[in-house]
Amino acid sequence: MSILSDLKSALSVLNIPLETGSFKSSPPDEYIVLTPITDNFDLFSDNEPEYEISEVRISLFSKTNYIKRKNQITKLLLESDFTITGRWYVEYEQDTGYHHYTIDTAKHYEFMGGI
């Protein structure tokens, strides 16, 4: 159970190339980059963490209309029990021609111990 593998699985139906950290090959007209943000223990019982909350930033880069993809990604995340913590248009990158849109997401995982 990891947020990165769960996101890759949920977003795979879109058939958009996806990388973690950065896009390593020559980028297509549309792609996604996943960037881990945090892993926290926010819910406790008897001084022990019960859940790990993992957060990832989803960056959509598109040379076409990004709004359709933004809506598809949002719908898939909500259907897959992710929490959306923020969404915003970052910029139009003049030098590359990409629209950059970001969705921050989080998911709770039961903590099984073993740090």
Q: How would you describe this structure to a colleague?
A:
With 115 residues, this protein is α+β, with helices and mostly antiparallel strands. Helices cover 20% and strands 50% of the residues. Strands 1-2-3-5-4 form a five-stranded mixed sheet, with helices on one face. A hairpin with a 2-residue loop joins strand 2 and strand 3.
- What is the CATH level 1 assignment? Alpha Beta
Strand content: over 45%
Number of domains: 1
Largest sheet: spatial strand order: 1-2-3-5-4
For the secondary structure, the number of strands is 5
User: What is the radius of gyration?
Assistant: 16 Å
The largest sheet, given as strand count, sense and whether it forms a barrel, is: 5 strands, mixed
CATH architecture: 2-Layer Sandwich
**Helix and strand run:** HEEEHEE
Quick summary of this structure?
The chain has helices at 3-11, 66-79, and strands at 18-20, 30-45, 48-62, 83-93, 98-110. The protein is an alpha+beta fold.
Notable traits:
115 residues, alpha+beta, STM4215-like, five-stranded mixed β-sheet, 2 helices
Give the topology:
Layout: H1 3-11, E1 18-20, E2 30-45, E3 48-62, H2 66-79, E4 83-93, E5 98-110
Parallel strand pairs: 1-2
Antiparallel strand pairs: 2-3, 3-5, 4-5
